[in-house]
Amino acid sequence: MLKGKTALITGSTSGIGLGMARTLAAQGANIMLNGFGDKDAALAEVRTVTDAHGGRVAYHGADMSQPAQIEAMVRECERDFGAVDILVNNAGIQHVALIEDFPVERWDAIIAINLNSAFHTMRAALPGMKARGWGRVINVASAHGLVASAQKSAYVAAKHGLVGMTKAVALECATTPVTVNAICPGWVLTPLVQKQIDARAAANGTKVADEEIKLLGEKQPSLKFTTPEELGELAVFLCSPAAQNVRGVAWAVDGGWTAQ
Asked: Among the options 155, 187, 225, 257, which is catalytic?
């Protein structure tokens, strides 16, 4: 369905971003990866999919806290592939602390990477999408873009801001062939989350399965993790003709977290 299209996915060398890259590549899209993870492993993993479905894959190491590097990444993607047709803003970091104990530099970094970077990518990529007459922007927010949790003030602020910015830009693009939407995952089973669960089990002398249920039970009524591939399939739908009038949505994929 996406053959000939190019997707730029920030924070895509592991976890959610990498899963979305694989899923979009399976639809024939070219992929531009970005992130601070193992780029060679990510490239090799996605290349097996692009080779099988007629696409190409490349990588750009832009630091998502640096506006000039972000613009350079968008321009390189346009030069190498001819366009940025699909922009997935997934890059993010986290820090947990009471607000009075929150390091100022961590607040600034979270706002820069989780929120400001999406402004810079959209600002750079949207003119080309409009000029070519097609585009999809998918901002990976969070359940924390819809509700809050204690000790996550910076993350909650950034993700609420990302949801709000998504709605504003969707309205700006409402009469164009460019759609802008957000996906709001709850707990997603990524390698980082799996490490946290394994560590909890080791520290408490419990089974990994029991720690998974305990973690999910705090927020996610389904008691099931979302997978990166499921989020990727939602991204595919948002890129489809059926979603041409889905605009400014903050789509919760959270096992009922925000329904409570």
From this structure: 155
